[in-house]
Amino acid sequence: MGKRKLSKEIITIDLESPTSPVADYGFSQHRSCWKHVLATLKARKKRLTKKETEAIDSFKLTAPCLLNHTCGERSKRKTTYENAGHGVSKLNKELLSSTFEMYFEFLWRGFSEDKGASCAYLDCLWFSLYKKRDYKSKVLKWIKDKNIFSKKYVLVPIVIWSHWSFLIFCNFDESLESTTRTPCMLLLDSLESADPRRLEPDIRKFVYDIYRTEDRPQTQKSILKIPLLTPQVPQQRSDWECGNFVLYFIKLFMDGAPENFSIKDFPYFMKRNWFTPEDVDCFCEGLYSDVVATRCS
User: Fold this and answer.
1) Coil, strand or helix: which one is 107?
2) Where are the beta strands (DSSP E) in the chain?
3) Which of 44, 105, 208, 227 would be 223's cystine partner, CB 3.0–4.6 Å?
4) How far, in Å, CA of 159 to CA of 162, rounded?
């Protein structure tokens, strides 16, 4: 869609109207939607600054928008989504960040209190937003509020370059000098051909800034010594399955995570034969059904 046509389309959308395409899903589904942001700014007749334009461009990379549908498709689309359970999308296509968060939060509520108390998780967009200058300090503040240095495991879903991967901070409640429970990081990627290690420089900078925000004494040199492990896990079969695999990684890791993670026992269950493609399909169908049942009850 060309810029001129896109701009005209957005200006004519009334975001407050109950007949707006957005109304079918609710504004919560568009908290990171770049079209929603742009439409709001234009509705307020606010001139876009260079920084705002750059921010919207960054959203385009990680937050595709449901407003791509035309108003002429609205009736058919509404019926489809209502029949699926009040706007619940099936896990058979590339996941939007908002859809991923919906499924992830449902999974999280299903974990035991003990599991939840020893773990924390970060929003799936925080890693990509951290890389944007205008959002870096905000993201670090949000992470500080999570108290991750009191948790055994911190789950960090990542979506960048339209690809999902799963980062886990292990033993960050321990000192970097600990010899019994060594802090380390795991990076699970269902597309090894994309080279998971390409994210390592950004991950280490991310971790260093998290430590620095907490006023911890660790240096960049000491952060470089934190092991970053990339187990060989089952691989996706199509271009769009990475989000599904990350959700399944999260489910299985939380179910089987050891009480005390030790590098000497790595990779534990995280191996090439960890699960089968059929297991992923079964998990996705069950998760979708559970979410629909919950929303319809």
Assistant:
1) helix
2) 119-121, 153-160, 163-170, 184-188, 228-229
3) 208
4) 6
Which residues are bridge partners to 163 per DSSP?
Answer: 160
Strands 163-170, 153-160: parallel, antiparallel or unpaired by DSSP? antiparallel
For residues 226 and 205, give the distance between their C-alpha atoms in angstroms, rounded to a whole number.
12
267 cis-preceded (ω within 30 degrees of 0): yes
Distance of CA 256 to the CA centre of its chain: 21
Q: How far apart are the first and last CA of the chain?
A: 39
Torsion of CA 57, 66, 140, 233, to 10 degrees: -100
* Token pair 């660790």: residue: 218
7, 29, 104, 121, 249 from 157: Cα distances, Å: 32, 18, 10, 8, 10
Q: What is the pTM of this model?
A: 0.73
Q: pLDDT by residue (tens digit) across 256-276?
A: 999 999 999 999 999 999 999
The one-letter code for the residue type at 134 is D
The answer for 274, left when phi > 0, alpha when psi is -120 to 50, beta otherwise, is: alpha
Enclosing H/E stretch for 166? strand 163-170
CB contact at 8 A, 137 and 209? no
Report, in this order, helix, strand and coil percent for the chain, each rounded to 5.
55, 10, 40
DSSP 8-state class, residue 168? E
Q: At 213, list the tokens.
A: 């925000």
If you search the block for the tokens 């399944």, which residue do you land on?
Answer: 248
User: Which tokens hold the place of 169?
Assistant: 């901070």
| Strand locations in 21-121 (E) | 119-121
Tokens at 226, concatenated: 């934190």
